Amino acid sequence: MDKVFEKIPMEGIKNIIVVASGKGGVGKSTVAANLAIAFARNGLNTALVDADIFGPSIPKMFGIEDVKPEISAVGNKEIFFPVKKFGVSIISIGFYIDPRQSLIWRGPLAGKAVTQLFEDTQWGDIDYMIIDFPPGTSDIQLTTVQKLNLTGALIVTTPQEISLNDARKAAAMFTNPDLKVPILGVIENMSWFTPDKHPDENYYVFGKGGGLKLAKEFDTVLLGQIPLVLEVGEAADKGLSVFSQKNKSVVTAFEQIADQIISKT
Fold first, then answer.
1. Which of 18, 77, 246, 249 has most Cβ atoms within 10 angstroms of its Cβ?
2. Half-sphere exposure of residue 34: CA atoms within 13 angstroms, side-chain side
3. How does pLDDT run across 161-189, given as a tens digit for each residue?
4. Predicted model pTM
């Protein structure tokens, strides 16, 4: 018998998509952030939730780490208002903690904190909500999957086998019979290295074919391959999106991935 979990009512939000990976360092937050911007550039009302409670990076990537979101008291409850940048409505635990301090919380407390971000934020009407998961398969992921009616999940990996091993674990969580979250597709990041001065040359420093292999294993599609471009990391450090940099191969990759997701949902 399928287990039934009490869901959080997310009125006005049409699609909720989680971006997940099995390990850190694969560019999951970069994918989540720029995919959200790609949706907004398509004229869609877009929200981005930084659910990485212990390592929030979205405020830094958007250049809004010093911003303090508006909070209103309604009875005994505080209501959060997202910060808007690049057309995306953003909420993160990073807005409310000192970035120099680490959070030392047990799993259930972290799960409760991320639930509060969903429940107590004034979202308005949203076409696509993107959730940037932390690496792995912890209480945060499980709580979110159980509490929200998800449209689907995106799995981010790099081509190398060690990344695939961890990405499989993330994908397997969504296909668990008790959860049954559709996997919309796999996104392969750092697929090849493209030098700035030689934009037509590709160097497969992490191997080839990993994303397609993972997609076939879970009976889904490879939505796109994102090249490793130095400007992407530099843009993130400066709070800029990939759409502000010169290398159009990355821009095209995100636009095509966004188009595919829109057509699927």
1. 18
2. 27
3. 888 998 999 999 999 988 889 999 999 99
4. 0.92
